[in-house]
Amino acid sequence: MKSIIRFNETLNVVLTVAGGVSLVVMTAIACVNMILRLLGTPLAPAYELVSYCGAITVALPLGYTQVKRAHISVDILSSRFPDGVRKTAVGTSMVLGFLFFSAAAWKVGQHATTLWLKGELSETTRMPFYPFTYAVAASCGIMAFCLLLDVLSMVFSQEESAQ
Amino acid sequence: MIGLTGIIILLLLMFFLEMPVGFAMGLVGTAGIWYVLSGDAALATVGSEIWETFSNYGLTVIPMFILMGQICFYCGVNQNLFNTAYTWMGRLRGGLAMATVMACAGFSAICGSNTATAATMSSVALPEMRKYRYEPALSTAAVACGSTLGVVIPPSVVLMVYGIYTEQSIGKLFWGSVLPGLVMTFLLCVSVAVMCIVHPNRGPGGPRTRMLDKVKVLPGASEMIILFVLVMAGLYSGAYTPTEAGAAGVFFALLLGLIRGKLTWKGFVSAIADTLKVTCMIIIIVTGAVIFGRFLTISGLPQDLTDYVARLALPPWAVMTFILIIYAVAGCVMDALGFLLVSIPIFFPLVVAMGYDPIWFGCILTVVTTLGAVTPPVGISVYVVAGMNRDIPIGTIFSGVLWFLPVYIVTAVIMALWPGLVLFLPSLVR
């Protein structure tokens, strides 16, 4: 279990680094386009490139955000529950989250496959953008995996403390 | 009826299961569409909305402005701002606390987050106020309340999300919140002065400074002014889009950091990591809100609510007051951005139907909801300040905050009585 958790953490750090590179690239494209437009020669594909970079900038660190517990939740009531009740509540919430992101990964992946098979191209650059869609689907899958790991860690830690 | 049931289930998931706000909205929205239409329609909505939201060009403005603020944070811009304000105002009774509020306002002009402002100003201003024997009730409350300016003064993340979600001009929203932000800054300083008149020992005056020293420290505030002017002037003239304004802000923040030699590689990497974490959290809430909004629209709840209020024959100001009270109370028990996105699909059509200006509504919402950042039980800014000063009881901070609470109400009332305060500058934007 520990090695799986370590693998998950490493994987998410790598993806976050990739997300960071995408953020820098996206910023650079927006800056270059702004300057070129002032000079009268705007970068035609800037809008699309920034959008696609934006998609992976947000998607790739999804798991990292979960690992760092950065998603906003409201604990005003649940923090008053007895420990066991709260763990069950949070565990249930994670299982529901796992189901949601699994469905998201499946449906976004299906959408990406449709784009690929239909040979959909972006309007300005005429490039296939399904790889970005697949990246978002994979990130949702990794997010689901992080939530599953959180549930399993919670179950195993409870078993260990019971022993 | 189904829309109302959805809202109740959403609240149960958030409050009883501690489910993250974005997940809860996405899940309830999906389940609701499944119930009203079909499973296929619900899952198709999830797939399409996630891709559409993640690849939305308009939303790329969020990471850009957050990154700009984070780079400034790691460059120590806040320290310079505080030194400048301190040299000018430190001599007055409560002057250090006023300087803190003004430095918060300055930092808010380049950073859209109240927690980042609270954290950074805690480390900069509190040691100084401790040195000059300021009572913690004043010093900590000044930082906590000053940090809420981060949500009001542009570039505010809440305004960006509101603008994208309701399809309003982000540039106009930014300009609309400039004057209310200045009024709020002024009123926070007035509150410090009032507190020091009633309790003179809370904020003793500091040492006198020479005019030459005052002039010497002025360049300390120049970085903030340069960045703010660059971003806002571009938006004002229509020279660049909000996303490009954010990108330009990042570029100039990096340039300033490198010229001053304050930006390290470690600081840059931390700025990127923090930006990704915060952006991801926000976009997940936005995505959840979009799916939840689709469900509410299908359920017909916003239209039913509008019709119901119309039948009540209440004057619009009474309905608006009621809506703002709901926002103020809800902001106290949950994250402002989260509640904003939960409630906008419900209230926004009603507000527009009553004839209120969406720009005005967005700006007044920032003032009302940010109140929740300094009030129990959520009070995120207070917790950040308390977390960085573990020797100060949280009750002490909340007792100090009480003195500043009228500021939020007075600012909202001024904005309601004189909408021109909000709408004048946006009317000049091209």
Describe this structure in words.
The complex is a heterodimer of chains A (163) and B (430). With 163 residues, chain A is mostly helical. Chain A contains five helices and no strands. The longest helix of chain A is centred in the N-terminal third of the chain and has 37 residues. Chain A is elongated. The two termini of chain A are 17 Å apart. The mean pLDDT of chain A is 89. Chain B is mainly α. Chain B contains 24 helices and no strands. In chain B, helix 4 packs parallel to helix 15, helix 10 runs antiparallel to helix 20 and helix 18 runs antiparallel to helix 19. Chain B is globular. The two termini of chain B are 43 Å apart. Classes of the chains: A mainly alpha (163), B mainly alpha (430). The interface between A and B is large, with 58 and 59 residues.
Keywords:
heterodimer, A: 163 residues, mainly alpha, 77% helix, elongated, B: 430 residues, 24 helices, 79% helix
In short:
The complex is a heterodimer of chains A (163) and B (430). In chain A, 77% of the residues lie in helices and 0% in strands.
Biggest interface, which chains? Answer: A-B, 58 and 59 residues
Which structural class should the secondary elements of chain A be placed in? mainly alpha
Gap between N and C termini of chain A, in Å? 17 Å
Helical content of chain B (DSSP H or I, runs of 4+): over 70%
Mean pLDDT of chain B: 85
Give a count of the beta strands of chain B, DSSP E runs of length 2 or more: 0
**Beta-strand content of chain B:** under 5%
The H/E string of chain B reads HHHHHHHHHHHHHHHHHHHHHHHH
**SS field, number of helical segments of chain A:** 5
- The quaternary structure here is heterodimer
- Biggest β-sheet strands, sense, barrel of chain B: none
Low-confidence sequence ranges of chain B? none
Number of helices of chain B: 24
Shape of chain B: globular
Gap from first CA to last CA of chain B: 43 Å
Main beta-sheet annotation of chain A: none
Please identify the structural class of chain B as seen in this structure.
mainly alpha
Percent of residues in beta strands of chain A: under 5%
**Element order, helices and strands of chain A?**
HHHHH
Mean pLDDT of chain A: 89
